[in-house]
Each structure stands twice: as C-alpha cells, then as structure tokens.
Design a protein that fits this description.
- By secondary structure, the chain is α+β, with helices and mostly antiparallel strands.
- The two termini are about 65 Å apart.
- It folds into 4 domains: about 60 residues, no CATH class; about 45 residues; about 120 residues, Efflux pump adaptor protein, beta barrel domain (Elongation Factor Tu (Ef-tu), domain 3, Beta Barrel), CATH 2.40.30.170; about 150 residues, Helix Hairpins (Orthogonal Bundle).
- It is about 55% helix and about 15% strand.
- Strands 1, 2, 6, 8, 9, 10, 11 and 12 form an 8-stranded antiparallel sheet that branches.
C-alpha cells in the first residue's frame, strides 16, 4: 500500500512540476535512470481509476505527509482484506457442504438401488388349495358375492348335508335304550312292592316275637309260683318225716304210718325238682326268643311270618341287583348313542374348513348339487401365508441361499415387506399349485420363492408387481439386536 501511494503521488508531483518549471536536461536524465520504464497500459489504467485533480492531489499529499495516517490506512486495508478472504472461504465451504448434501440426498438412493442385489421381476403370489367334499351329500353354499372374503371378514360357510345317511345303528341303540328304560322302571316298581311287603311282614314278625316273649314271661311267673308251692310242700313233708322217724323209734307210731309219711316226702321232693326243671326250660326258651330264635316242639326255629320276611328280603336283593345291572346297561347304551349321534352328524352334515385369509379362486360345483365323498368343490387362495414369486439373473441366483432374508417393495406403495427365501428352483420353475405360475415371468429363467412374514390385506393382491431386494440390512440389524442369526448371501461382505 505505501508503494502504491507513492506511485500515485509521483504522478501528480510530476504533473505539478511540469506546470511550474522546466526541468534541466541533467535532472531529466537522472530521473530516467533512477525510475524504471513504466508500462503505458498500466499508467492508462491507473489514470482511469484515479483521475488527476486538485482534490486528489490534496488527498494524496495528506496521506503522504501527515504522521500515522499511512500506517492506520495500511492496517485497516489489511484487516478488511482478511475479512473479505474469510467471508469468501466460508461461502465456498458452505457451497461445498451443500453440494455434498445434495449429492448424498439425490444420488445415494439410486446408487444403492444400482448396487443392491435385486430381482428382475417379482409378483405377489399365493398357493391354491383344492377343497374336497368330506362326505357325500347336497352342497349348500352362499352366493358368489359372499364367497369372497379378506383378512378382516369371516370366511363363508360351505355346508354339505346328506339326507340319506345311514342311521340304522342309531335307531337300534335307541330301541334297546327304550327297552332297558322300561325294564328299569318295572324292576324299580317290583322292588318298591317287595319293600312294602317286607316292611309289613317285618312288623308282623316283631309283634309275634313281642307276644311270644310276654307269654313266656307269664309262664315263667306261673312256674316260679309252682316251684315255691313245691318247696313249701317239700318242707312240710320233711318235717312230717322227721316226726315220724322219732315216733317210730319210741314206738308210738305204726310202720304203715311211717311208710306213708316217707312216700309223701318223696313225692314232694320229686315235685319240687320237676318244678325247678320246668322253670329252667322256660328261661331257656325266653332267652332264645329274645335272640330271635324260636324253640318249640310244634314249629321250626322261626314262625311263618319270619320265614316269609326272609323270602321277601332275598327277592328284594335280587330285584335290586337286576336294577343295578339294567341301570349300568342304560348308561352304557346312552354313551353308545352319544357316540353314534356324533358319527351320524359327521355322516349327515359337514362344514367345509376354509383358510382364515383367502379368496375363492374357482367354484367347481353349484348350490344344490349332489357330490360324492372326495369330489373337488372349489379352489381357494390361501392368503394366510403370502408368498412372492421372483426371477433373477444368473449372477444373483448363484449368490442366494434358502433361508436368506429378502425385502419386497411394491411399485405403487411406499411400504416394504420382509420375508425369507424358501425355495430356489432355478430353471425348473416352481410347484404348479401357485395362482400365477412363476414360469410366466419370462425376463429371466431363474426363479426364487420368498415367504413373507405379514402382508395383511396385501397378501391377497395376487399379481401385484414390485421389486425384491435380497439381503435386507434393516432386517439383519433387527435380528442382530434381538440376538438371532440369519443366513447371508454367499459372497457378500458379511461373510468373511
């Protein structure tokens, strides 16, 4: 900056000197030797940028000769230049960062799509299940509109009824049950009658036993009195015998009188002994009757009422045993009838089971039509286990493995669905039970089948196109966080 000021000052000074005095030749030659030759174009440019005038000359003189002005101006110009350089550098870095961000934002997704292992074609597919008739009978099916359902609607009911189902065994069991129930009722009534008669005979036998005991008690009382009379008679005769023996010794009584007294004493003693035995016999009979045993000469150990009671007890026991057996048979027959009714219901009416999520693909019979057992009724799409059929080129196919993760992205939907490779069929196609045969994908002959985890209602969107990305990093990171391991693609960076 000082050199430029001096340069600017030299111009005006030379101009002022030219206007006041004419230089000498010697001074002119010295000036030419001391000052380098100036470029005319530079001088012209400087003259255009700084026009010469009185005000300009004064400003240049003040800047050149005032003390401290030149240094302050130089510092101010240096700081301004630094600020300008810093501002320019900051703007350049900001532009570079913005450019890098735009490149990452708009270029990373296409670059990632180009570098990812993807399919050539991919469609949503599903397996077709053929529903067959479990029994023979008449088809009762809803209309075609009600035959379609989704994940939220309940599947339609397809019922087959057989009015000609065999029920002869069921009818026979029911007849046997009716006969056993009638027999059970009869035996129960007979048992009640036998119990009534038994109660009456038992009451009669108890009355007889009580009366017999009273009779024996009266006989015991009479025999006890007879024994007491015999004892008195024996005591009297014994006293007479003692007097007779004393008188006979003294000679005051005859021998005949003494013999008579002796006979009376013997007769009284025998009568007393007989009375004692009769009393003992009656006591034995009393004790036996008290124990329920009747002892006598003219009858057995039990009277006819007690014998009849015994017979009724035996008959009542037989009736009860028969009743228990019949009731057991009734229970067994009832169980057989329940089992036969269940079998008859299976033979006469059946509800065809359909997948929880699906759609009728083809109806093979109509309502009211008679079908045989095992006949095809309809074909339905099993949307509860959605799959995706895809084809890939040979390079990608050789890197895939069964069990590797995959991600399906529909073309018209921003969502992604995760799944797993379950089959690699190569050029052999795939099983024929798919709604859309994978062989219809003609851009590449290498076919892959992916089982999707959960697609919701989209699982029945058969034929919906999209792209399959193999080796989903999001799925791998999620499984890694949960501690599970999933297989990777052969030759990928994760192996090794």
């Amino acid at each position: 900056m000082p050199s430029s000021n001096l340069r600017y000052a030299e111009g005006p000074r030379s101009a002022a000197g030219a206007s006041t005095a004419t230089p000498s030749p010697t001074s002119t030659r010295r000036a030419e030797v001391a000052k380098p030759v100036a470029d005319p174009r530079v001088e012209e440019t400087q003259a255009k940028q700084h026009p010469v005038g009185a005000r300009s000359v004064q400003t240049i003189l003040e800047r050149s000769f005032l003390p401290g002005v030149e240094d302050g101006a130089a510092d101010e110009a240096s700081s301004a230049k630094k600020r300008l350089v810093n501002a320019v550098t900051a703007r350049r870095f900001a532009k570079i960062a913005l450019g890098i961000g735009l490149v990452i934002a708009f270029g990373w997704a296409p670059l990632r799509a180009m570098l990812a292992t993807t399919s050539v074609e991919a469609i949503v597919n599903a397996r077709i299940e053929t529903i067959r008739a479990p029994i023979e009978g008449i088809v009762q099916a809803p209309g075609e509109k009600a035959a379609n359902w989704s994940a939220t609607a309940a599947p339609p009911k397809l019922i087959i009824t057989n009015p000609y189902a065999d029920r002869s065994r069921l009818d026979e069991l029911r007849r046997d049950l009716n006969a056993l129930e009638s027999q059970e009722e009869t035996l129960g009534r007979q048992s009640q009658l036998a119990q009534t008669a038994l109660d009456a005979i038992g009451l009669q036998a108890e009355k007889y036993r009580a009366g017999r005991l009273k009779l024996i008690d009266a006989r015991l009382a009479r025999q006890t009195a007879d024994l007491q009379a015999a004892n008195a008679k024996t005591a009297e005769t014994a006293a007479s015998k003692r007097r007779s023996d004393h008188l006979q010794q003294t000679g005051f009584i005859s021998g005949a009188e003494s013999d008579r007294v002796q006979y009376e004493w013997n007769a009284a003693t025998s009568a007393e002994a007989a009375a004692q035995k009769r009393l003992e016999e009656t006591k034995v009979e009393h004790d036996a009757v008290a124990d329920g045993v009747f002892i006598g000469d003219s009858y057995n150990d039990a009277p006819s009422s007690i014998q009849r009671e015994t017979e009724l007890k035996m008959k009542k026991g037989e009736l009860d045993a028969q009743l228990v057996a019949v009731r057991s048979q009734v229970t067994h027959i009832a169980d057989q009838i329940s089992e036969e009714e269940a079998r008859y219901r299976l033979r006469s009416e059946a509800t065809v089971a359909l997948p929880l999520k699906g759609r009728v693909w083809e109806m093979l019979v109509g309502p009211g039509e008679f079908v045989n057992k095992g006949q095809d009724l309809l074909r339905v799409l099993d949307c509860s286990n959605p799959i995706v059929s895809a084809n890939v080129d040979e390079r990608v196919y050789n890197r895939l493995e069964v069990g590797s993760p995959a991600t399906f992205r529909p073309l018209e939907d921003g969502r992604t669905y995760h799944g797993t490779i379950i089959n690699l069929t190569g050029t052999a196609g795939a099983p024929a039970n798919f709604a859309i045969p994978p062989i219809n994908l003609r851009k590449s002959p290498f076919y892959v089948t992916i089982a999707m985890d959960d697609m919701g209602d989209a699982g029945c969107s058969i034929g919906r196109t999209g792209t399959v990305i193999f080796g989903d990093s999001n799925a791998d990171s999620a499984h890694a966080a949960s501690g599970e391991t999933r297989p990777h693609l052969k030759g990928s960076n994760s192996e090794g």
